[in-house]
């Protein structure tokens, strides 16, 4: 299994079951990504973008399955409190 360190850190750190407690009130995917981008240095954003491109290239037509397999437990679109949605 390929390692995607920065993507792992983003998902596990910002999109976990406590997302509504740790993300300064942000409760949309775009809002949380915006918060991450404000705090991350440019080099990290560049490496993360490269990892995301590689993830897409590696898993292509099985992208959704691989994402759920890796991040399904942490990436919560609804955590039982209020739903995490796109804006």
UniProtKB/TrEMBL annotation:
It holds the Pfam family CdiI_2. It comes from the Bacteria. Residues 3-76 form the CdiI immunity protein domain. This is CdiI immunity protein domain-containing protein.
